[in-house]
Amino acid sequence: MNLSIVSAKSVSNKDNILILADGNDFDWCKEFLSGTEIKYLKSAAKNEILQLVFPQENKTVFVQYFKPEQNAYRKKETIRREGNELLELIKRFKIEELTIVNKQKENFTSEFIEGLALGNYQFLRHYKNVEKKINPLKKIKVGKNSLSAKDLKTLNIILEATCWARDLINEPLSHLNAPQLSEQIKEMGKKAGAKVEVYDKKKIASLKMGGLLAVNYGSVDPPTFSIMEYKPAKPKNKKPIILVGKGVVYDTGGLSLKPTAHSMDFMKSDMGGAAVAACTMYAVAKAKLPLHVIALIPATDNRPGKNAYVPGDVITMFNGSTVEVLNTDAEGRMILADALHFAKKYNPELVMDFATLTGSAARAVGSVGVVYMGNAEDSLKKKLEISGHETHERLIELPLWEEYGEMLKSDVADLKNIGGPSAGAITAGKFLQHFTDYPWLHFDIAGSAFLHHSDSYRGKNGTGIGVRLIFDFLSNY
Fold it and tell me: Considering only CA atoms, which of 372, 358, 357, 362 is closest in space to residue 440?
């Protein structure tokens, strides 16, 4: 993350200041504004001007008001978006450090900083002249009583993990193949205090992970299978919670080559699920949540070279099931299936998998939500949906009715890797369900993991969606 967020022990008269204020409260004004400025502020408040800037001799004072909102979740999201909007003023004034002081009766400092910090994110590592492009804001100082030390630490961890996920998603294959992804996961484990083990191709072959090996047949780079584990001394859960992430570092579609214009241009993002699983694990371990959590990340690219698997092939999976491959572009489910079966060895309490899996899910909800499905208890689903609203990473559940399983029946194998032309997101989930025998949820983030146009603080390109959602869920588990 290219921004440090620290506690301010005091506010000096040379600090650039942002006041978060209620529209009908002016008691704080004399501390920061002149009489003329206060008069203008009151007039602006009557006209519902929400953002104001007062350039002063040694500093700049920003004032932010918020419109009343009946819906608490919507209010938090509005505040995040206001944080992102203020960023444009900060850039214009070339502000490098900003001190935030909360004068609201309700404290939404955390949400405002989320919008400001995530909006300030940039992926610049491949530019020659980075200095010309980098945003001026380098540090946010949080005024006394605006955020507790614990909340400030947690906020920093969440933002760092989300930005790390964005970095991974934005990184091209030339700099992030499967072995390089596993090195990034090792670095996360080292920084956060989580145990990491990486299986190489020889180990994967000895385990007979047929799905992961099949997708890798066409690549010159070997696959990896990363296991990341955090287990505190006294976890609340007796059995582990497992996060599984699809790590297809680049997807050409294989021999079922992607046919449409620009459909391959952003396929470096097809490991968005791996980014969610790994970076959420990083946040869990760094925050020392009292939970035993494991992440499983199968990784490879999907290419049409060498001995690439072909439509019509029958693949024996890690669990012994045979799969008739009718589309090599339905590769994510092949590698996830092996990881989901591997999860059984831990006798898990809950398994959640994350994947940029289907265009069907993207078409269903666009970029504003996440499709999910699974057999976990309704109480857990309800808590997840609450976290979805809390973080504005909203969820919509799709059914896994038996009829969808009929669409995966094969003439030559136990099942085929695609269903029919309809309900593609569901039949993909139904395929994955075949490899589970525990409480399980599947999240298809295809529509929201990578954006082609900027969307407020989510920005453009990799969003890191899922990290804040699952961290919130686990924090309240």
Answer: 372
CB-CB contact of 58 with 14 (8 Å): yes
Q: Output b/e per residue, 195-232; b: 16+ Cβ within 10 A.
A: ebebbebeebbeeebbbbbbbbbbbebbbbbbbbbbee
Which amino acid makes up residue 82?
E
Domains of the chain: 4-147 (3.40.220.10), 172-475 (3.40.630.10)
Query: Which pLDDT does position 143 carry in this prediction?
Result: 86
User: Roughly what angle, to the nearest 10 degrees, separates helices 149-170 and 178-192?
Assistant: 170
Dmax (CA) of the chain: 83
Cβ atoms 264, 252 nearer than 8 A: yes
Q: Which residue from 333, 301, 317 is spatially nearest to 446, judged by alpha carbons?
A: 333
Query: What residue type is 240 in one-letter code?
Result: P
Task: Give me the catalytic one of 333, 416, 430, 458.
Answer: 333
Report the 10 Å Cβ neighbour count for 318.
Answer: 22
Tokens of 165: 């996920």
Cβ-contact 256, 328 below 8 angstroms: yes
At how many degrees (to 10) do helices 149-170 and 109-119 cross?
Answer: 30
- C-alpha dist (Å) from residue 352 to 22, 436, 463: 40, 11, 19
Of the residues 59, 75, 186, 258, which is catalytic? 258
Residue 261 has pLDDT above 80, yes or no: no
Query: Residue 345 and residue 309: Cα distance in Å, rounded?
Result: 28
Question: What average pLDDT does the structure give for the chain?
Answer: 95
Cβ neighbors of 73 (< 8 A, separation 6 or more) are 389, 390, 392
User: 461 vs 12, which has greater pLDDT?
Assistant: 461
Confidence grade of residue 45 (pLDDT, cut at 50, 70, 90)? confident
In this predicted structure, the answer to whether residue 212 has a pLDDT above a threshold of 80 is: yes
Residue 199 has what DSSP assignment?
E
Q: What are phi and psi of 304, to 5 degrees?
A: -95, 20
The secondary structure of 152-171 as a DSSP string is HHHHHHHHHHHHHHHHHHHS
Q: Report the distance separating Cα 372 and Cα 276, nearest Å.
A: 15
Report d(CA 163, CA 161) in Å as an integer.
5
What secondary structure letter does DSSP report for 182? H
Active site residue 258: yes
Active site residue 333: yes
Q: Which residues contact 405 (CB under 8 A, 6 or more apart)?
A: 430, 434
Query: Using one digit for the tens of pLDDT, what is the confidence trace for 434-447?
Result: 999 999 999 999 99
Task: State CA 48 to chain mean position distance.
Answer: 34
Shortest CA distance to 185 belongs to which of 97, 115, 277?
277
